User: Fold this.
Amino acid sequence: MTIREMCDDFGVTPRALRFYEAKELLFPIRDGQKRLFTRRDRARLKLILRGKRFGFSLEEIRQLLDLYDIGDQQQTQLRKTYDLAMDRLAEMERQRAELDANIADLKEQLKWGEKMIASMSATKKAAE
Assistant:
């Protein structure tokens, strides 16, 4: 596939693809100035984008992708990915709990603010 086809299929920019290539995440075939992406590059980009969506660092993604070729039918890759994903899930759940607590606190503060505004408005009307 050409860089344009990859961009269109995955909703990324040419700059992003060149960046992933520079970070040794993708390895397109070079034909002069053209980059031609293989089926393997397509699969890797899909995993890169999924990893980013889940909050993995590019270095973590690169390390996981590199485990594909160690010759154990991807057992090491799958185990490492699973362990890293479990850690990430725990972190995301911790962040969600913190966010839920912050939302509840802000709602309480807004209720207090509404009462204060109503009280001030009532006091002002009584004074007039």
Q: What stands out?
A: DSSP finds five helices and two strands in the chain.
